[in-house]
Design a protein that fits this description.
The protein has four helices and no strands. The chain is mostly helical and 86 residues long. It is elongated.
Length: 86
C-alpha cells in the first residue's frame, strides 16, 4: 500500500507543472508565473534528487528528475515569453 501511495504522489508531482506549461504555450504568456517560485521549487527538487541518490531510491530520483525537467521547460518559457513581451 505504501508503495502505491509513493507512486501516486510521485506521479502527481511529476505532472503538476504540465497544465502551466500548456497554458503558457497556448496563451504565449507567463505573466502569472512567479520566477521566484520556479527557482525555489527547482532548488528543492534538485535537493530531492540528491537525497534520492543518497538513499538509492529510484522512485524519488525518477520523479524528481521528471519534475525538474518540467520546471526547466517552464523557466525557459518564462524567459522566452517574458522577453517577447518587453
Amino acid at each position: 500500500m505504501w508503495t502505491l501511495i509513493g507512486i501516486t504522489a510521485a506521479t502527481l508531482t511529476m505532472l503538476s507543472f504540465i497544465p502551466q506549461i500548456i497554458r503558457a504555450v497556448r496563451t504565449r504568456s507567463v505573466k502569472d508565473v512567479s520566477p521566484i517560485t520556479l527557482f525555489q521549487l527547482s532548488t528543492g527538487v534538485a535537493l530531492w534528487i540528491a537525497y534520492g541518490v543518497h538513499l538509492g531510491d529510484r522512485v524519488i530520483i525518477t520523479a524528481n528528475i521528471v519534475t525538474l525537467i518540467t520546471l526547466l521547460i517552464l523557466i525557459i518559457l518564462y524567459f522566452y515569453y517574458g522577453r517577447k513581451r518587453t
